[in-house]
Input
Amino acid sequence: MPIKIADNLPAKQILESEKVFVMSESRAAHQDIRPLRILILNLMPTKIDTETQLMRQLSNTALQLDVTLLYTATHQQTHTDHRHMAQFYRTFDQVKDEFFDGFIITGAPVEQMRFEDVDYWDELCRILEWTKSHVFSTLHICWGAQAALYYHYGIDKKPLPQKLSGVYSHQRTMEFHPLTRGLDDKFYIPHSRNTSVSVAEVNAVKELETLATSHKAGLAIAARKDGRQVFFTGHCEYDRDTLLKEYMRDQAKGLNPAIPENYFPDDNPGLTPMMRWRSTGYLLFTNWVNFIYEETPFALEQLLPLL
Output
C-alpha cells in the first residue's frame, strides 16, 4: 500500500527516487479505489497446486484482488477433474471482451518442444496479442516468459546441456526499480528448466531491461521499461517440496536426474529441503501488484494499447 505523506515533506523526494510508492495528501483526497482485476492463465498440469501457490503469493497485500482463472480450450485437460475446471475456470472466448489490471501466464512442461509444435500455441498467440490492448501488466513465468519473449520480440529459447534444477543466488542489475525494490543484495529463487534465454538478446531490445540475474541460472527477471510486461524465468512461487516432487517424478521416469542444487541440506534427498525464497517471492509479487495499483487507469476501458 502507498504511504500518504504531506506534499512538501523532505522525505518525499528521497523515497520517490528509490521507487517507493508515496501518495501526496492532495492525490489521496481525490483517489478512487476499486478491486484490482487479476487474470491467471494456468498452463501447468498440476492446476490446483499452481493456483494455490499463486494465490498465496498474491495474498500478501492489503489490496483487494478479484482473481479469474483461465485455461486453454484447445488443449485437453487430463490431469485435473473436469468438474473443477468447469466450476472455477473460464476460456479465452469468455473473457476476451473484458479488461484486466494484471495477468499471470504460468510455465508449462513443454519447453523442449518448438513453440509452434505446442498444441495450444495458436490460441496462446491470440492471448498474447490480446494482452497488448486489454491488460495493464502481464507477468510471465518460466516457459510463459520464454513464449512471450519469442512471440513479442523474436527471442528464442536455447537448450541447456543438462536440466537446470535447484535454488540459485541472484543479484539485482538496477539499484532501484519498482518491481525489485526491497530485495537484498543477494536473494534466492528456484529454477527448474531445460532451456534458457540470453541476457544479451534481452538487453538488445530497446523496450526491455534486465532487472536480476544469476551467475549460474542466467536471466532471472526482465521487464518492459514501462512495466506492461514482466518476465520471471524462475519459480519464486514454488512450495518447499515442489523441486523434490519434480526430482522424484524424473527418477520414476528413469531420467536419472541430478540432485537439485543448493536445495537439500548436504545434498541429501532424505533431508527436508531448505526454504530460502519465501520472502523473495512475496516481495516480488507484492511489488508487481503495488506497481499495478499505482499505474493502472481507474477505468480499464481507457487502457492505452501497446504499440
About this structure: The chain has one domain: 32-302.
